[in-house]
Amino acid sequence: MKRRWFKLIFISLITLLFVGGITGSIYYYIQYKNVKNEQVNKEKEIKKLVTQVGKLILLPQDESPTVATVIDKDKLKNEAFFQKSENQDKVLIYTKWQKAILYRPSINLIINVAPINSIETDEGTKEE
């Protein structure tokens, strides 16, 4: 009788571990796919942004920019480059070419262009 209970508990435990393992694997696979999709979407968004800005100004072709979004223009008001910035403006930073471009997507306009060494803050921007 004891042996029968032991077998039943053992089989139940193995089944529980198996189901838990499968469930965990599925969960982490879905999380992985979500992160991968976010990365692909960000890359598409950056390409679209570069295409839009590229219609307004000649951009470097051998470098992909780092893109940041102005999230709090008040924190940037003391920076000359960001004087005319608004929230949701995009900053394209080309490190090899040492240029930064402040772009306002809402009106499709370049607000400012400057060498990167004059931009030393990241308080009011969020890198994408």
3D structure, described in words:
- This protein has 128 residues and is α+β, with helices and mostly antiparallel strands.
- It has one domain (2-127).
- It has 1 helix and 5 strands.
- It has one helix spanning 2-54; strands spanning 66-70, 90-94, 99-104, 109-115, 125-127.
- It has a 5-stranded antiparallel sheet with strand order 4-3-2-1-5, with helices on one face.
- A hairpin with a 4-residue loop joins strand 2 (90-94) and strand 3 (99-104).
- The longest helix has 53 residues, at 2-54.
- The model has no long low-confidence stretch (mean pLDDT 90).
Topology:
Blueprint: H1 2-54, E1 66-70, E2 90-94, E3 99-104, E4 109-115, E5 125-127
Antiparallel strand pairs: 1-2, 1-5, 2-3, 3-4
